[in-house]
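testing teh design pipeline on a random one, pls ignore if ur not involved
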C-alpha cells in the first residue's frame, strides 16, 4: 500500500468515526422533559426581505398557535421593496401579539445582512425564550408549545427539526435527503453532548444567552452565522446546554427547490460557515475537512490514482454507515423513508460535497435575499 493510500484510509477513518458517532447518538434514549407549570414568555422572530408572497400564510399559521404562555411575534422587515411592511403592519393592527420592526432599528448597524435584521427583533423582544423560523416555512399549531417545552430542564438552546417535501424532480429529492442526513448527524452528535450545528429555520434559545455571549458581534462580518456559528459561540463562551427536539409537533417544513441553481446558491452560503468553524470548534472542523478530502479523493480515484479494491472498500463502508444512519434516524423520528431518494443522494453526494468545499472560499460573494456581504 502506498503512502497516499495510507493517508486516504486515515482521512476516511476520521469521516467514518464521525458517522459512527452520529449513529450511536441517534440510538440513545430520549431525555424525558417535564411539563411546564409556569410557561415561559416566548418571542417568535422572523427576518424577512421581499417576502410578501409567503408572508400572509405564515402570519395566519402563527396566529393559530396553541401556546398558552405569553407570546409575541416580531416580524422584522429588512428594507423590503415589495408590500412586506404593509402586510405586517396591517396584521399588527388586527392582532396585538404581532409587532412590526425594521432592520434599521438595530442598535449596531455594523452587523451584516440577516444578523442585523435578527438583532433588531431580538432587541425589541420581551420574551424569555427566542424562537426563530423563516418566512417560507410551515409548521403545525403546536410548534411553539413543543419548542418552548424543551426549556423546562435548565436547557439553553433547542435545535428543531427541519425538512422539505420532495417532488418528482431529482433536485428536490436530493434536497430532501441531504437536509435529512444533516439533521440526522445534528441529532446524533447533540445527543452525545457535543452540539455542532443548527438551522435558522427552526431553533430557539434563551434571550439571556444571546446578550451573555455578545450576540452576533464575534461573527458580524460573515454572510451567515445566525445558527450554527452562533451555536458554537454559545458552546465555547457560555457552555450552553443544547438539546435536539425530536417531537413531531415541533417539525417545520421549508421551501422545496426545483432548480439546481437555487439549491446550490443556498448551500454555498451554508458552506461558508465551515471556513470559520475552526475558530470555535476544532474537532468539528477536522470532521468537515475529512468529509471534503475523502469525497475529493473518491472523485479523483476514478482516474486510476488508487487501486480499485481500495476505492471500492471505502465506498462500501461509506454506504453502509450512511445507510445505517439514514435507517435509524428515519425510524426514530417517524418520518417517511424512500430508499430510492437515498440512492440518488448517495450517488450525487460525492461531487456535491467537493463542489461545496471549493465554492465555500467564495461564499461571501453570494447574496442573502438579493444582497451581498461586500
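output:
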Amino acid at each position: 500500500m502506498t503512502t497516499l493510500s495510507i493517508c486516504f484510509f486515515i482521512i476516511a477513518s476520521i469521516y467514518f468515526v464521525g458517522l459512527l458517532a452520529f449513529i450511536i447518538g441517534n440510538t440513545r434514549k430520549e431525555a424525558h422533559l417535564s411539563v411546564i407549570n409556569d410557561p415561559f414568555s416566548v418571542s417568535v422572530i422572523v427576518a424577512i426581505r421581499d417576502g410578501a408572497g409567503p408572508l400572509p400564510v405564515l402570519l395566519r399559521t402563527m396566529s393559530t398557535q396553541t401556546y398558552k404562555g405569553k407570546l409575541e411575534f416580531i416580524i422584522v422587515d429588512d428594507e423590503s421593496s415589495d408590500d412586506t411592511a404593509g402586510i405586517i403592519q396591517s396584521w399588527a393592527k388586527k392582532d396585538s401579539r404581532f409587532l412590526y420592526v425594521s432592520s434599521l432599528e438595530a442598535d449596531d448597524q455594523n452587523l451584516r445582512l440577516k444578523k442585523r435584521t435578527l438583532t433588531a427583533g431580538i432587541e425589541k423582544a420581551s420574551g424569555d425564550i427566542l424562537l426563530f423560523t423563516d418566512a417560507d416555512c410551515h409548521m403545525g399549531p403546536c410548534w411553539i408549545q413543543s419548542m418552548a417545552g424543551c426549556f423546562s430542564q435548565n436547557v439553553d438552546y433547542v435545535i428543531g427539526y427541519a425538512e422539505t417535501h420532495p417532488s418528482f424532480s431529482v433536485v428536490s429529492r436530493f434536497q430532501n435527503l441531504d437536509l435529512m442526513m444533516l439533521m440526522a448527524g445534528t441529532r446524533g452528535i447533540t445527543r452525545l453532548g457535543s452540539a455542532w450545528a443548527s438551522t435558522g429555520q427552526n431553533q430557539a434559545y434563551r434571550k439571556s444567552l444571546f446578550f451573555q455571549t455578545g450576540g452576533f458581534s464575534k461573527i458580524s462580518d460573515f454572510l451567515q452565522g445566525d445558527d450554527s456559528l452562533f451555536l458554537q459561540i454559545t458552546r465555547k463562551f457560555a457552555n450552553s446546554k443544547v438539546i435536539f427536539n425530536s417531537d413531531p409537533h415541533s417539525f417545520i417544513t421549508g421551501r422545496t427547490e426545483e432548480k439546481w441553481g437555487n439549491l446550490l446558491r443556498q448551500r454555498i452560503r451554508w458552506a461558508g460557515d465551515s471556513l470559520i468553524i475552526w475558530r470555535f470548534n476544532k474537532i468539528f472542523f477536522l470532521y468537515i475537512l475529512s468529509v471534503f478530502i475523502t469525497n475529493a479523493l473518491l472523485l479523483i480515484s476514478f482516474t486510476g490514482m488508487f487501486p480499485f479494491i481500495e476505492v471500492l472498500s471505502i465506498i462500501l463502508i461509506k454506504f453502509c454507515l450512511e445507510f445505517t444512519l439514514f435507517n435509524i434516524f428515519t425510524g426514530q423520528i417517524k418520518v417517511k423513508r424512500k430508499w430510492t431518494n437515498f440512492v440518488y443522494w448517495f450517488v450525487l453526494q460525492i461531487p456535491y460535497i467537493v463542489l461545496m468545499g471549493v465554492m465555500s472560499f467564495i461564499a461571501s460573494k453570494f447574496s442573502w435575499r438579493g444582497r451581498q456581504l461586500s
